[in-house]
Specification:
By secondary structure, the chain is α+β, with helices and mostly antiparallel strands. It has two domains: 88 residues, PAS domain (Beta-Lactamase, 2-Layer Sandwich); 122 residues, Heat Shock Protein 90 (2-Layer Sandwich), CATH 3.30.565. Helices cover 27% and strands 39% of the residues. The protein has six helices and twelve strands. The strands form three sheets. The protein has a five-stranded antiparallel beta sheet. Helix 4 runs parallel beside helix 5.
Length: 229
């Protein structure tokens, strides 16, 4: 692998090239993580839809997301009919100011079950669906603040008939702090009616909970470091 190839391979932004039939010819490391959240078909169709009419390269500014990935622009290029490439430019993510190696060890499943029970008591008409990664260890959290954060988010979905809560580990994603590397976990909460007026309060609570919160259409996503000791 030469210098240019290595640069693409370790780029922060996903890059994929396809043959004319949509079969992947090359994929860098970041794009492998992206394809854990969407399909090669979706990325190929995106490249085809935004390709230049004639041969060459075209950059388009747009707002698009797949799972936990958000992008602000793409570049699509092709020199002949045999191969087309696409690079997606990731939005700068909010960063945690610190990694809280304090707090208390807690079973995340039990904590979330308590939050869901409290939300169910507030709105008996709402159906809750849980999709939990089964491999989480007990983790260290600021329990009171994290619970406030989850409860406030559930409050923003009180008018939804169904709330889906998904707990997952962000494969290949880490936070670095004081020369230590921490995996990231995400909590996705989704319902058809979200009260956007509560966003500011949710963001303020997330700071004390040492978490990052994102809002995407009907979905609210919490990201935090997974500290298990």
């Amino acid at each position: 692998m030469d210098f240019c190839e290595s640069w693409i391979e370790y780029d922060y932004n996903p890059f994929v090239s396809f043959d004319k039939n949509g079969k992947v010819k090359y994929i860098n490391q970041e794009a492998q993580y992206l394809l854990g959240e969407t399909t090669t078909k979706n990325i190929f169709e995106l490249a085809r839809d935004y390709a230049n009419i004639t041969y060459g390269f075209k950059t388009t500014v747009l707002d698009i997301g797949y799972g936990s990935f958000s992008f602000y622009a793409i570049t699509v290029g092709y020199m002949d009919e045999e191969e087309i490439g696409i690079k997606l430019y990731k939005k700068a993510a909010k960063k945690l100011a610190t990694i809280g190696e304090y707090g208390e060890i807690v079973n995340i499943y039990s904590l979330l079950d308590l939050c869901i029970s409290a939300a169910s008591a507030s709105s008996a008409k709402t159906k809750h669906i849980k999709i939990f990664d089964p491999a989480f260890p007990d983790i260290r959290l600021e329990i009171e603040e994290f619970t406030k954060l989850v409860n406030k988010i559930f409050q923003s979905y009180l008018d939804s008939s169904t709330i889906k809560t998904k707990l997952t580990l962000n494969t290949g994603e880490y936070l670095k702090f004081n020369n230590k590397k921490y995996p990231i976990f995400s909590l996705h909460i989704d319902g058809e009616n979200r009260d956007e007026t509560l966003e500011k309060q949710i963001e303020q609570i997330s700071v004390n909970a040492n978490s990052i919160v994102q809002f995407k259409d009907t979905k609210t996503i919490i990201c935090s470091a997974l500290i298990s000791n």
